[in-house]
Design a protein that fits this description.
- The structure is a single chain.
- By secondary structure, the protein is of the alpha+beta class.
- The chain has 3 domains: 6-32 and 64-134 and 316-326, 2-Layer Sandwich (Nucleotidyltransferase, domain 5), CATH 3.30.420; 141-178 and 256-313, 2-Layer Sandwich (Nucleotidyltransferase, domain 5); 179-251, Actin, Chain A, domain 4 (Alpha-Beta Complex), CATH 3.90.640.
- It has helices at 47-52, 74-88, 108-120, 131-138, 179-194, 200-210, 245-269, 272-281, 295-303, 316-326; strands at residues 6-11, 15-20, 24-30, 33-36, 42-45, 60-63, 66-67, 70-71, 97-102, 125-130, 149-154, 159-165, 168-175, 196-197, 225-232, 238-244, 283-286, 307-309.
- Strands 3-2-1-9-10 form a 5-stranded mixed β-sheet, sandwiched between helices. It has a 5-stranded mixed β-sheet with strand order 13-12-11-17-18, with helices on both faces. It has a 3-stranded antiparallel β-sheet with strand order 5-4-6.
- Helix 5 (179-194) crosses helix 6 and helix 5 (179-194) packs antiparallel against helix 7.
């Protein structure tokens, strides 16, 4: 008897994770592709391509084919999925069954693009699962119960905010502001306030090292600092600057506010009985951007609802996709 491989994919704006049934998570690489403009040949994918971001000559482009959780460059995405499948299945790609996560409010066109990209990569069957549902399954939330759970999945391109009850999304919103927008805000602030031009990789490093969503400016507080290397806006020469977390905190306020508004909007759409459940259980935060220091305290402070980050938030969605593909029959209702 020939068994088809079952593969789960979390195709994120920043990172792509692959889960193979019976094996577990086998791949976690950046969603970056480098290709030659002249020959249209794909030169590198994943980790190798990320090394090239912002460092390529004119004839080579290193880019993220996913923008704000949606396929922006179709051909490149299909080639990237093919590459990740080959790498995960060690070259034995025989029409696998694929389950892939999509944003909660994805349009029919966006869904078709994802299915077509997977089919082109050699998939026999493609199942779509909404990201907030996958994140909730991965966070071990009992989604099939008749009680409200709120999950906020903070990814690279989108913040997926959803209230789930009886295995379905009751109220949801996709805010197209997340990790990459934080990086852009840091780039913008350093250029405007300090006359320093930096690339997105450096911005990401600053965010990881000294990014902070909520700072208690108490007397005696020791501010974290970080050495930033970039180019001076005026002279065009290389420049080194020591930056503190307070100015980075100010830079992050605008994108954080957009996410907060989304959470408030979803809470306002939630039926009162489910809202009562959420007050009891709190807001669950998952996704890579949930690793930003104090983001749970920030959301708690402004919503008056306790919120907490799940264990290993980066792997939350892929764990959920993996559990769903392993138990395909019981999750048939939740998937498209």
């Amino acid at each position: 008897m020939f068994f088809r491989k079952k593969v789960g994919i979390d195709l994120g704006t920043a990172n792509t994770l692959v889960y193979v049934a019976g094996v577990g998570i086998v791949l976690n690489e950046p969603t970056v592709v480098a290709y030659s403009l002249e020959t249209k040949q794909i030169l590198a994918v994943g980790d190798d391509a990320k090394e090239m971001l912002g460092r390529t000559p004119g004839s080579i482009i290193a880019s993220r084919p996913m923008k704000e959780g949606v396929i922006a460059d179709y051909r490149t995405t299909a080639a990237m999925i093919t590459y990740f499948l080959k790498k995960s299945l060690k070259g034995h790609v025989f029409w696998p069954e694929i389950m892939i996560s999509i944003p909660g409010g994805a349009s029919q066109v966006e869904k078709r693009a994802v299915v077509a990209a997977c089919k082109q990569a050699g998939a026999a069957d493609v199942y779509l699962i909404e990201e907030p549902l996958a994140a909730a399954i991965g966070a071990k939330i009992p989604i099939s119960q008749a009680s409200g759970h709120m999950i906020v999945n903070l990814g690279g391109g989108t913040a997926e905010i959803a209230v789930i009850s009886l295995g379905q999304l009751v109220a949801y919103k996709t805010v197209r502001v997340a990790g990459t927008k934080f990086d852009e805000a840091i780039i913008h602030t350093l250029r405007k306030k300090h006359g320093l031009i930096i690339g997105e990789r450096t911005a990401e490093q600053i965010k990881i090292n000294i990014g902070n969503a909520l700072i208690d400016q108490k007397p005696g507080m020791v501010e974290r600092t970080y050495e930033v290397k970039g180019r001076d806006f005026q002279t065009g020469l290389p420049k080194i600057l020591i930056i503190g977390e307070i100015s980075i905190n100010e830079a992050l306020q605008k994108p954080l506010k957009s996410i907060l508004e989304g959470i408030k909007e979803v809470l306002s759409l939630t039926p009162p009985e489910l809202a009562a459940d959420i007050v009891d259980k709190g807001i669950v935060l998952s996704g890579g951007t949930a690793l930003l220091t104090n983001i749970d305290r920030y959301i708690t402070y402004y919503t008056n609802v306790s919120s907490f980050v799940v264990e290993e938030p980066l792997y939350c969605v892929i764990r959920g996709v993996g559990m769903a593909i392993e138990n395909l029959q019981s999750f048939k209702e939740a998937i498209r």
